[in-house]
Specification:
alpha/beta, 4-stranded mixed β-sheet, 2 helices, 6 strands, 25% helix, globular
Length: 122
């Protein structure tokens, strides 16, 4: 049931995103998490370079990717740490960015907070 929001900083030189980009990301996330078809939902947004800055005028050769993941439940531990690194690598691969520029935030667990189709699932 992962609901994933991905925002990536885009340089004008990249041109428009591939029509299949959101699907490629959803499929990659599903593979890493071992999710069944139709259970990973991705919302993708490109952020123009003009809408992103680092303090002190810093910057790098690569544009960052910000990812927010909502899961029903999760526990921090070696398994989550390994999957998170695998996710960063997969998302970086699809978006042509090094994994170290993919920043992942896990939201508070969704159990009891999110109602799919108006129904809370347990």
């Amino acid at each position: 049931m992962p609901v994933v929001r991905i925002e990536y900083v885009r340089d004008a030189s990249e041109g428009p995103p591939r029509e299949t980009l959101a699907q490629e990301l959803a499929d990659g996330i599903g593979r890493v998490l071992g999710s069944a078809d139709g259970t990973v939902w991705v919302r993708l947004r490109g952020l123009d370079r003009a809408g992103y800055a680092e303090n002190g005028g810093g910057g790098t050769a690569f544009s960052p990717v910000f990812v927010e993941i909502l899961l029903r439940d999760f526990e921090r531990g070696p398994g989550l740490d390994a999957r998170t690194l695998d996710l960063a690598r997969e998302l970086g691969r699809v978006l042509d960015r090094p994994a170290e520029y993919v920043h992942i935030l896990y939201e508070n667990p969704a159990r009891g907070r999110m109602a799919f189709g108006g129904v809370f699932g347990d």
